[in-house]
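Running this now, will post back.
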Amino acid sequence: MNEHFSDIFTETDCPSQDQLMAYVQDKLEPAERHKVEAHLADCEMCSEAVEGLMAIRQKEQIPGWLRQAKWNVLQQLHRKTHRKRKTDFYLYIAVVSLIVIFLALILFWLFHFFNTGR
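Update: finished.
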C-alpha cells in the first residue's frame, strides 16, 4: 500500500468518488482521464477500486448501490451506539443504586451504634 495511506488524516491527491465513477463510465475529458490514469498507475488503493468498479456490468446503478451501502452502514452504527447508550444507562442506574444502598447501610449502622451505646 502507498505510504500516504498510513495516516488517514493526511490529504491525498486521490481522485474523488465522482471522478472515479466518471472514469469508469468513460465520461471524463481526455486531459482529466489522463490525470486519473497517471494516478492509478501509482495508487494501489484507487486502482483496486477502479478494477472492482469495472467488473460491474450495470455501471449506471453503482451510485444507487453506494448510497444504499452507506445508508446500511449508518443504520448499523446507529443501532450499535443506541445499544451502547442503553447499556451505559443501565450500568449508571446499577452504580447509583449500589451507592444509595451502601449509604443507607452506613446510616443504619451509625444510628444503631450510637443508640445502643448509651
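The radius of gyration is 30 Å. More later if anyone needs it.
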